[in-house]
Amino acid sequence: xxxxxxxxxxxxxxxxxxxxxxxxxxxxxxxxxxxxxxxxxxxxxxxxxxxxxxxxxxxxxxxxxxxxxxxxxxxxx
Length: 77
Fold this sequence. Notes:
The protein has helices at about 5-20, 45-55, 70-75; strands at about 25-30, 35-40, 65-70. It starts with a helix and ends with a helix. By secondary structure, the protein is an alpha+beta fold. A 3-stranded mixed beta sheet has the order 1-2-3, covered by helices on one side.
């Protein structure tokens, strides 16, 4: 099994690829019982793309998608 640092990097890369790097302040928590995503997205679609990025690598893990969808003007500021 991959170590947690390697898995964290792979998840981060996959999420960035899937979302076109459109998640600000991306944070991934690898916990024994689940994966938690945090950050800021300008659309719900981008939030979902991040979730699919995790599912690509970990299809059966419990995933908590806590990415916040906010107005794009707020993210830019």
